[in-house]
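Anyone able to model this chain together with coenzyme A?
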Amino acid sequence: VTCDDLGVPVVRRAVPEDAARCAEIVRGLPDFFSEEVVEKVASDLRAHGGWIAVEPAAGLAVGFAVVARRPPGSAEILWMAVDAERRGRGVGAVLLDRLLDDLAAEGVDLVEAKTLDRSAGYAPYAATRRFWEGRGFLQVDTIDPLPGWQPGNPGAIYVAALRATRPSRR
Ligand SMILES: CC(C)(COP(=O)(O)OP(=O)(O)OC[C@H]1O[C@@H](n2cnc3c(N)ncnc32)[C@H](O)[C@@H]1OP(=O)(O)O)[C@@H](O)C(=O)NCCC(=O)NCCS
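re: yes, here you go
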């Protein structure tokens, strides 16, 4: 099954009522998210807002991203996930392209995403790092432990530039 069979996902801004479905998506990905973070994802979505990918055929939310603004010119993708049964079919790419376009239009220059570093040796996140790396994100640091993360989970810090930040030379 590809995106074409189910329709290209439609991306829209999140509303607080999306939090329950986002929590459900996260609960369906136990290799990636522990039960403790499920409520945090929902509360962060309500607090910060985000973007939702909807499968047109069913009108079902199948992916989401929660983004915190870091004024004046940065933002962090706090959480992002695609429904377990629909991963690897391009939903995440469509969602990410749209949210980066929207952030750029808002004046955001740099976007950060944190994930599990390869030195953890934990296989599921290899695809996640390929996802970020394939879409313009560069790893700028590794921090172990990241504040708030369980010890033994080295954090990989990724950044994508939406535009150049150096002042132009005269
Ligand atoms: C990471 C995630 C959001 C990506 O969404 P997705 O819909 O699965 O990704 P896409 O199908 O759009 O894939 C886009 C690219 O990522 C890469 N990719 C994604 N899944 C992959 C997999 N299982 N194996 C290899 N590459 C993969 C591919 O290179 C693909 O590139 P292509 O379009 O050139 O083929 C999703 O897989 C997910 O929810 N993962 C689990 C939770 C997670 O890791 N969240 C991020 C926390 S930092």
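The chain has a mean pLDDT of 95.
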